[in-house]
## 1
Amino acid sequence: MRDLVREYKGGIRAVDGLDLDVATGEIYGFLGPNGAGKTTCVRILTTLLRPTSGRALVAGCDVVRDADLVRRSIGVALQEAAIDPLMTGRELLRMQGALHGLRAREARGRASDLLERVGLVEAGDRRIGGYSGGMRRRLDLALALVHRPVVLFLDEPTTGLDPTSRAALWREVRALNNEGTTVFLTTQYLEEAEQLADRVGIIARGRLVAEGTPNDLKARVGMPTLHIELAEAEHAGEARTALEGIGPVEPPDPRAPTRVGVRSASGKGAIAPVVRLLDERGIAIVAVEVESPSLDDVFIAVTGTGLEGGAVQPPEAEAVES
């Protein structure tokens, strides 16, 4: 994407001059509060919405001038798929194959392969109206894969799923990526981005405000903190003084008199030096825990709100985005 803009009535910019690159074979996680512009970007990249200005290429094809070529190269699983509840999963997959130009025999074979891939073999000949939410999501993923796309767009694919269904979908996304599929993933689950994404982009007010690997982004907002539980509160002051050579020491907390905190870029690597240092001074330790910055900390730092917090755009912008 280069200087991509999508403007709505009243001059509201859901996407405001966005520049973004996603590499072939990458899983790219796209995060943002409600109304930030995530879904608008996906709609533009999947040719469902024309940009006001700027340019976007998907699989080397312009989303405006070469829209047909883009559609042949991508698979799309949106939040709300229009699935006929009276059809069976197998019927819908065969129909999708026919729409993509597969011959009847090839479409039948592809449907069987995909039902097995997403774990719906037993449910394949049942009407979709009886599917659970997790089964519908898996079928939606299978539908997006019928024509073997090189780029897969997943718009909040696990929203509303139970942990088991979510983990199953994550495994399938990883497997697809290992086979070479590029994945563009929008999500409101920070854990999902950490589990799946090679890189993460955070969008707010239609602009990219942070980008990098999950670990790089977390490192920008702070160092890991070692929380040391002492055997006796009377040694807390001496322990804080000794730990100043390790890194910044947290101030005392009256609610936890035996607890001492020190920050260190080494994270878990600092545990041994800390234990050795305090042992040399005869200070007994009960436990050491390491707390690293989270993607939620990054999100709050760059957007001013948690991921499930209020919208960062005016209400009008949120309305058109959703």
## 2
Amino acid sequence: MQVDRDKVIKINEWMEIFKDIYSKPDSKTTPEQMWIAVMAHSSSIGESIRKFSFESLLNSTSHTFCWLCSFVNKCNTLDDDIFSIKGYLPEIVSLKYPMVCGHCQGKPCNCDPVKMERQKDKSAMYKQLLERRKRILASFQSYCIEDSCKEFDDIYGGRIHIQSLENIGYHFMEEIGEAAVCIRQLSQLREITKYSNTKIDVNFIRQLSTIEGIVNNYVSIKPPKDINYASRNPNMLKARVVEAKMGLVIEIGDSFSWFCSILNKLNSISLSIYDHPKEHPEILKPLETVLKEEYLDSSGQPRCPSCKRSHCECVFYNVTTRKRQHYKK
């Protein structure tokens, strides 16, 4: 596929670019393994923030974004699988963030932090968010990275302005880790349809492959506050699956929200630096520019930044250790 390097690339298009480059190696990789890669590159974001290394930070955000998109691509390719989620990344994020805050549903956010922490049962809110999402879903099809950053800046810009880059990074890492908890829970139940005594069949798993199906089942099943993980009761097992699947969707949204907040904070720092251009050379680039430099050649042809091939041919004997950048320790 050929890409116009001078044009803004939509997030959906970036996902297709990554699919074009990595479809072969990703076909041999499980969702669990792919999220390990998301976590690995996210930790590089944390390290770069700690060192206040802008160049490394932008490089780490580009690879984290690639793996996050690849994870969603993987979920899209799965059928009758507990990890199956149909939809592009912006469509998944749009459940928790349908152009408003996912808690107070305000823009800008008007949340009371104390009340928000006390609110545990969000089942009714998910139904409201789903209805709002249906009305604006088409808008997310055209979203680019800059659009997403602006959307989250409109919602949370005031709150992000008073936070440090380090604090934003901590929040991002927290959400990535919470998504890993949900992935671990789903992984523990991956073979659940193979046992008749669970009374969970493939049709139930298929219902959970769409955002609407996940929300409807979450609301109807209403997972208890304290799930009994030792119970073999079919209803309890269904509750575990639904809670983990809903949790994954929400944590992907939260992770992307804080990811965009990192980019917004970097942009704020960049504008501050550029107020004095003679004293400070240009050191910050938009993520879109970094992605094009990493994943597109001079003619706009997608290519792996490691092996430089249009379709990744990196040699790995254990796909769980595959990396999309070279680490130098």
## 3
Amino acid sequence: MKFTKMHGIGNDYVYVSGFEQPVVDPAGLARRVADRHFGIGGDGLILILPSETADVRMRMFNADGSESEMCGNGVRCVAKYAYDHGLTKNNPMKIQTGRGVLTLNLEVDRGRVRQVKVNMGQPILELAKIPVDAGKLQTSVFEHMHQLVFGDAMEKGSSKARPMSQTEPPVDAVFVSMGNPHAVIFVPEVQSVNLSYLGPLVENHVAFPRRINAHWVQVVGQNEVIMRTWERGSGITLACGTGACATVVAGSITGRCDRKALVHLPGGDLKIDWRHPDNHVYMTGPATEVFQGEWPD
């Protein structure tokens, strides 16, 4: 099986083109190839497939074999692969994902894609659609400033959710979906957070029927934040594109940052812009091909 290793600011996946070869048991394949000691190594597996509604289709599998709806860093790499390898030369490009069909604008240098701006669509803020089971949070959830109140609203202007139980120490979270679920937790100093301990507790909390991506965020200024991630199904990763989008949305609706901000992640930076009037979130960042190879399985 031919594959290409790619990453978006360190969020690395093994990419396989279904235009050239069939893939049997992608969940099992993801577990094998993502292993960093006995496989190729990566945060998971992404398939690039034909689509009847877009230029190409993306399917994304985490390192544990579970399939996710969307990957922001991954979709930029899919666009680069599709353009650089001649699957399509459309720019803007349409990519079918579990979130729907997304539009991507490509920055091309000497025939190669270097950077991609993705229209990530509108954020989802309704708890049931994220999904979050409000009754199992054992909390009255934040008033999110867009005239939708989930659970029992706290005092007007409050941005804080009471602690989720079953996490020790408890955490306060803002919940956003970008097609996949996110819990955004603001802290004074992000480097001191024990991700290995807190990450699994939040990801697997009973309030999240499809588990959740957890992000700890430090606000530097109105247009700048620092973020660390525990990704559902993959653990600690160097970056999460959908998480960066969710972070800026969460920061904006709670008054912590503006709708346009630079997000610093361990693997690099992403530019996020939650625009008026379409309410869509736009993410801009690089996409990098590392190497190609052949998997003997």
